[in-house]
Amino acid sequence: MNEAEELTVLTLEKKANFVETPYIQGVAGRALDYIGAGYPIHFSGPAGTGKTALAMHVAAQLGRQVILIHGDDEFGSSDLIGGQTGYRSTKVVDNYIHSVLKQEESVSKQWGDNRLTTACKYGFTLIYDEFTRSRPEANNVLLSILEERLLELPDARSGDGYLQVHPHFSAIFTSNPEEYAGVHKTQDALMDRMITIKVGHHDYETEVAITQAKSGLPWRQSKSIVDIVREFRKLGVNNGRPTIRACIMLGRIVANRKGTVAASDPTFRQLCHDVLNADCLKVTHDGQVAGLERLDEIIARCCPPLPALVPVAGDKKAASDSRRAGSAVNLVAEIG
Ligand SMILES: Nc1ncnc2c1ncn2[C@@H]1O[C@H](COP(=O)(O)OP(=O)(O)O)[C@@H](O)[C@H]1O
Ligand SMILES: [Mg+2]
Q1: Separation of 111 CA from ligand 2 center, angstroms?
Q2: Is 150 in the pocket of ligand 1 (CB under 6 A)?
Q3: Percent of the chain with pLDDT over 90
């Protein structure tokens, strides 16, 4: 690779804590199928539905190096394909016959490839995350790449103005159709060239597994956290929020301070209030903000009481003895 390819190229590997439940395998499998047949794919869904994680996971499975671009309102097409980076001046001094001095000076325009051109040239996988944040004019260059597999380049770049896209080039897009701030409507022509896979919130099993994998908490506590977040989400006041990110935050903070997930624990209740505060504001009752009360009810409903001591099965005598003695001998914690 030359100087133009000093751009960041990622080598992605399957992440150890990436959760693959049947739901995830299903979505990823469809995506790989369509890419295999030569089509770009587009994960479309609300925030926190795992679009970026899925794009990375699918890209890792393709086994090619990855170029990652984040959509940006400020982008022009040169931010994608490259542009003129300056001028190069060369000077040749010929004094073969020492009494004669011949000088030649030439100035040529310098072109620097940008990430999209590099991906097309070497057959990398492009992940264009949140591509609707870029203006449609900037994304126009994608039309011929995806359809004719030709990248049209300005004259300033040496060559014939076209670059044949490498056969291994593939593209994965993500976007959030519910985002209302800082996004642009996409041209139909571009949408028409990709296969859009709608993703929604993960199913219950997947959310618990992700919370567990990302926090390291036991399954039981991860489940209670997911129960709280899902119950709160069901109130339906805030565009599908709180998302899996809230579950991961709660789980990680509890794990980090070796805390408990219990309604009777004021520190845990406070943590829930802090993490879910922004979503609480939209819950009202008789015109009053009632989010925190609703949240407290939900925590009480979803969290099992602190580990209760119950007799070991089949050891009734020991249990009744110990009850009389008020001791915890032969008792085990019900909840791990
Ligand atoms: N299958 C998965 N396994 C592990 N973590 C996941 C998985 N899907 C999503 N996550 C985690 O959930 C959070 C939100 O996912 P992300 O892909 O960023 O969502 P989006 O791009 O839709 O907003 C991130 O922390 C991400 O790492
Ligand atoms: Mg994302």
Answers
A1: 32
A2: no
A3: 58
Identify the three-state secondary structure at position 325: helix
Beta bridge partners of 332: 310
The rounded distance, in Å, linking the Cα atoms of 219 and 91 is 70
Q: From the CA of 176, give the closest atom in ligand 1.
A: 22
Question: Structural domains in the chain?
Answer: 3-81+117-198 (3.40.50.300), 204-305 (no CATH), 308-336 (no CATH)
Backbone angles phi, psi at 108, to 5 degrees: -125, 155
Return the ligand number nearest the Cα of 44: 1
**269 to 53, 211, 274, 307: CA distances (angstroms):** 29, 18, 9, 17
Strands (E), 160-295: 162-164, 170-175, 195-198, 284-285, 288-289
242 CB near ligand 1 (under 6 Å): no
Q: What is the pLDDT of residues 144-155, one digit of tens each?
A: 999 999 998 876
